[in-house]
Write a structure and sequence with these properties.
Strand content: under 5%
Shape: globular
Number of strands: 0
Radius of gyration: 29 Å
Length: 330
């Protein structure tokens, strides 16, 4: 008696049951994947409206001969091509010389401001790591400059820098007797140092807050082991604190650099529309080139050149820091 081979029948696919016994929904994974994009959608729309569209319009303006005669309909302005860029980087002409001087001033100002903000913020954060009476009050006081509105803080400093009735000259000249006469802080060469003081005063609390948050991730056991090995405070900071804070400092320095190099509010509120030559930052210089001479094409070209410079510096910085981090990890 022969047996007939019967092909095995496939069992119907059984949907996995949820812990409660009910079948799990099929589209839960798709919803879980789409949820982050839906949450990011409002931010992306605002970024598009506030930054990307105006940036593209500014790039388009840089290729046009846009003056006050075409403000009503800037699209009707004649095509200038690369002429605006050529005028901006012609360092033998007055426009190019003024832009180069402003660029070098901004570079010096940015380097000093970022270095001082980082140093003061890091020193204050390390100092406040140890528990002592009044630490909470000091932390709150250190964050006051960061919490104050920029206009309120800078206007207050502008009054303090007044020559005849300002607090700075009252303390330095009247009380301490420094100098033969009260100094001018908002004009001349002293304007650069006044701007630097205000920038550091309102910028270092951000560095303090960032470094203080980074210090919370360093295990206390490392400091205790180093102390048992005879390492002092300076050696602990050099060999434990600073290497552990390297990822935090890399982002902190980049953010401070971008904020400081692009800072427009501080010089504008402190000096007005026309800053002294010693404190002529490039952001305010571009504003003057656009809205005082009514040459928006040249001003837009300067803005595009500034954008390209910042993109190049940021890219090189991220490339070097990322490569350095990989080398140190190996």
């Amino acid at each position: 008696m022969t047996r007939t081979a019967v092909a095995p029948q496939r069992e119907p696919a059984v949907r996995k049951a949820a812990p409660g016994g009910a079948p799990a929904p099929r589209r839960s994974g798709h919803r879980r994947i789409a949820l982050p994009y839906l949450l990011l959608l409002p931010a992306l729309l605002l970024e598009l409206l506030v930054h990307l569209i105006p940036m593209l319009m500014g790039i388009g303006m840089s290729f046009k001969e846009l003056t006050q005669f075409y403000i009503r309909d800037w699209s009707a302005a004649p095509w200038a091509g690369l002429d605006n860029f050529a005028v901006s980087i012609d360092f033998d002409a007055p426009v190019g010389q003024a832009l180069l001087r402003s660029f070098l001033t901004t570079c010096l100002f940015t380097v000093l401001s970022v270095a001082l903000c980082w140093f003061l913020g890091t020193a204050a954060a390390i100092f406040l790591q140890e528990e002592f009476r009044g630490r909470g009050i000091l932390r709150t006081l250190f964050l006051v400059p960061y919490a104050l509105p920029v206009y309120t803080a800078v206007i207050t400093w502008a009054f303090m820098f007044q020559r005849d009735n300002g607090l700075i000259n009252h303390v330095l000249h009247d009380q301490l007797g420094i100098g033969d006469s009260p100094a001018f802080w908002l004009i001349g060469d002293n304007s650069f140092w006044s701007l630097l003081v205000v920038s550091v005063w309102k910028g270092w609390p951000f560095a303090f807050l960032t470094v203080m948050a980074g210090l919370q991730n360093i295990p206390r056991d490392m400091y205790e082991a180093a102390s048992l090995d005879g390492a002092g405070v300076l050696k602990q900071i050099r060999h434990i604190t600073l290497p552990s804070l390297r990822p935090v400092n890399q982002i902190l320095v980049l953010v401070l650099f971008l904020w400081t190099f692009n800072d427009f509010n501080t010089p504008f509120v402190l000096f007005g529309e026309a800053a002294p030559e010693a404190a002529d930052l490039i952001s305010l210089h571009i504003y003057q080139s656009s809205f005082q001479t009514w040459n928006f094409g040249t001003g837009s070209a300067m803005s595009v050149l500034l954008l390209l410079f910042l993109l190049v510096v940021t890219g090189v910085y991220l490339l070097l820091t990322t490569r350095g981090r990989k080398t140190s990890d190996v």
